[in-house]
Amino acid sequence: MPKFAANLTFLFTELPFMERFAAAKQAGFDAVEVLFPYEFSAQEMRHELIRNDLTFVLMNVPPPNWTGGDRGFAAVPGCEERFRRDFDRAIRFADVLKPRHIHIMSGKAEGMVARKTYVENLKWAAARAPKRSLTIEPINPIDMPGYFLNSFDLAAEVLDEVGAPNLHLQFDAYHAQMLTEDVAGTWAEHGHRAVHVQFADAPGRGGPGSGEIDLAGFFATLDAEGYAGHASAEYTPQSDTRETLAWLPRP
User: Fold this and answer.
1) pTM of the model
2) Is position 137 annotated as part of the catalytic site?
3) Is 243 assigned a catalytic role?
4) Which of 73, 123, 127, 231 would be 83's cystine partner, CB 3.0–4.6 Å?
5) pLDDT per residue as tens digits for the range 183-194
6) Each residue's pLDDT tens digit, 234-243
C-alpha cells in the first residue's frame, strides 16, 4: 500500500485542531497535511509535528483560512500583486512547517487572459521558490464553480507551458472521478506528472467504500507503478474519524 497521510482539515474534526496531530499518529498515520494553516501558530504546529514524529506533506496557497474567502488568485487577472504577496507569506509559514509540497490554487477565472495570468504567476512562483515542490490540482466545478483549473488536460498543458522542474501535478482521485468518471484512466494518462495524491470516495466525498471509486484498486496501481509520494485521506467522515479507518493498514 502507498504511504498514507491524514488531511487534518477534514479528518479528526471532532477534536480541537492541535489535538488532531496526536490523534492521527495514534490512528496509524505517519504524515499529515493542512489545507490552510494560517489561522494557527506555525511554531506550535511544528512542535506537534516533531512531538508526534509526523511528516508534513502539504499546505495550500493562498493564506485565507478554510472558513471563507476566495480559493486562490493565481489565474485571476489584476490580482498579480496579491498573489505574489500571499505566496511570500505562505513561504514564510513553509519555512517553519517544512511541507513536502505547496499547492497553488488558481482561483475563479476563465478565458485566455486568465490562462496567461496563471502561467506567468506560476513561472514567477517556481523561480521565486526554486527549492520548493509546488503543485497544481484540477478541481471539479460542482464543488467549486468557476474554478479555473477544472480539467486534467488543462493542467498538463499548463505544466508544459510553465516548464518548471519544481512544478508538478497534484492528483485527487475524488476530483478525477467527478471530472471524468474514470479515475484509473485519468491516472494512466496523467499520473506520471503527480508528486502528491489525495483521495475520497465519490459521489459525496465520504471515506473509502462509501461511493463508486475502486480506491483499493487505485492504491494497488500506485504500488505497482512505484509511486513514491503520499496518498492523503481528504474525505468527510460521517462519524467519529476513528470509526471510518477500516481501510487504513495497521502495522
Assistant:
1) 0.96
2) yes
3) no
4) 73
5) 999 999 999 999
6) 999 999 999 9
